[in-house]
Each structure stands twice: as C-alpha cells, then as structure tokens.
Give the backbone structure.
Amino acid sequence: LTCPNDCGACCGNGNCSVSENENCYTCEADCGKCCGDGNCNATFAETCDSCAADCGQCCGNGAKDSQFGENCYNCETDFGKCCGDGVCNKQAPFNETCVSCPSDCGKCCGDGQCVSEHGETCLSCEADCKCSTSRLCISPRIAPVTGRPKSEYWLTLIT
C-alpha cells in the first residue's frame, strides 16, 4: 500500500502496518490503544504520569519523579520528609519558614527581625522586638516574603 488514492487509507483497514508508520498513537483503529496494553512503552512517551495503567503510579515507585510534579509534600514515600531535611526551602510549593519548619529554617525569635506574622512582639521575643520604657512596644513591621522592614510600626501597650 503505497498510494492511499489507489488502495484506500491504511489506517482503518484492520491491519496495523508498521511499514506504513502505523502504531497505537498514529492509528488506534488498527493498532489498539497504547496506554492500557500492559507495556510501559517509552517509545510512545508512556510514563508513570501519562499512563499509570502500564507504568504504575509515580509516587511510591522509589524514584524522585520531580518532572511530574512529585515532591516531598505530595510524595513523602519517594522524597522523604520536607521539614527536617536540613534545607530551608522557602520557594513554592514548600514555603518553609521559621514558623513552619524551625529545624531547617532556624528559630524566628533571635534572628534580628521582629515579624508580627510569626507571633513576635516585645513580650514574646524581646531579642528582636524592643519595648520602650513607656510600656509601649515599638517594633518595625517586617514583610514576611522579603524580610525587609516596612515603613509601618506595631505599637503594643504592655499591661
């Protein structure tokens, strides 16, 4: 079959013809489905992400399949725990901070920044938030994302 005009289309004739470049992706009618045939075929780009039926689930396969979105939060089985790995992963999807993961990011109090979003006040963290003698706590408000002071200050009356 070299001329579909004379002989008819190859795909759909009931014969999976490899010589005519038919395969499960180019002619499912003749060759059947790729995914679900029981073979994890890399030639047809089957992976644990695209065809779990043939290749198995990504999470739990012992491989760190980060190219398929796996990470320590959604697949602790393959990656291990996020918090406690010795790395302060501040970027998404981890978003570790001194509040969510002090073992990796260090303690909030004592880092030289008075961050109210971390619950720091002059009462809870005198090392970072200084209180005035008039019993007012004057603490620069720190932006939690950048860690830089804002032009705002928190005032807390000590009772």
